[in-house]
Amino acid sequence: MSTIFSKIIRGEVPADIVYQDDRVTCFRDINPAAPVHLLIVPNKEIATVNDLGEQDERLAGHMLLVAKELAEREGIAQSGYRLIINCNRDGGQEVHHLHVHLLGGHRMGPMVLRR
Ligand code: AMP
What whole-number distance in Å separates Cα of residue 59 and Cα of residue 103? Predict the structure, then answer.
């Protein structure tokens, strides 16, 4: 597996990277759905939440803590934000490299469309 996100992590494709460490890379979404729209991506190639294992417990927690830190840095911690992880077809996942969306900067709409 080598997704567009792996290429961004390796520096082969440009992106607006806002944070990177040995476990995660975070960059601005190319097609933002809110004034702040960041993606928190594990450097390790994990396709979906379904593919997380026990060995990834600390990594998954780190992703949440980095998201919290970035919300603070972006100035949206107090006004609020939404974290989203899409999984597979029904979840609307387009890029099969696990990522957390951090969205904020205005009022989010309803959590999901009811039908
Ligand atoms: P998802 O539907 O959860 O898989 O979300 C994938 C997200 O990746 C979408 O919001 C896209 O706009 C975003 N995206 C795709 N390619 C890039 C890219 N090259 N740089 C930044 N964001 C991207």
Answer: 21
